[in-house]
Amino acid sequence: MADHYQSTGSAQEALTHYEHLMRQYPKEAYAYTNLINLHLSLRQIPQAASVLQRFEQHLPGHPDVWSLRAAIAYASGQREEAVKLLNQALEADADNAAALLNLARIYFAGNDLSQAAPLFERLVKIQPGMTEALYFLGMAYNGLGQYDKSLATFDRLVSKNILLPGLYFQKGFAHYKLVQLESAEQAYRKSTQLEPNLAEAYFHLGLIRYQQKDLTGALLWIEKALKIKPGHVPYQQALSKIKNETA
Predict the structure, then answer these.
(1) Record: fold of 197-247
(2) pTM value > 0.70
(3) Are 96 and 63 in contact (CB under 8 A)?
């Protein structure tokens, strides 16, 4: 019930139900964890800290406590404290999936991909089917220029029939960087089927046409990107460059 309210965006109803579950089942970590995460998503940091205090009172030593402390620290702008707490969690249990995921997310958000990728790799070994870990691992590989690895990772998600526009965009980007233009085009087109307003995918389709010396096709795709994002400077610059070449 509470999950339904949370997924449909009725935050107050979700808060009420998790509070009820927490009181009814004080030894159930699920209610505390979800209530804390919901408070954090609403930027209600003092409330999240209060729930964590109750969590530690009822379930002292629970392995999720480290990650929840870190989440509250990170939400409070204490990045180094969050990293410290998560590393402590991993010292206690190297296979703590929540700690691995949260630490990898912090490094990924800070664009420290060389730190994030090994953590996502460890997480995928522990939980091979975790969609989020595979997706972020693939993006980390892309950011590190390890495109063959990213494609192998994204293909694992494609084989699971994961239909995320970002997945196919990132897959297209890897193919593009490897100059596999037909495969890149297929992936970019798939991303626009899933998200018709994905301007960056149309722009990259234009770049593919440009590399293929099809200037008319390149203009059409980039103009489509500009319809979605009018005034976007890199798109306008690319459009002007190609128009000058066709003049």
Answers:
(1) 1.25.40
(2) yes
(3) yes
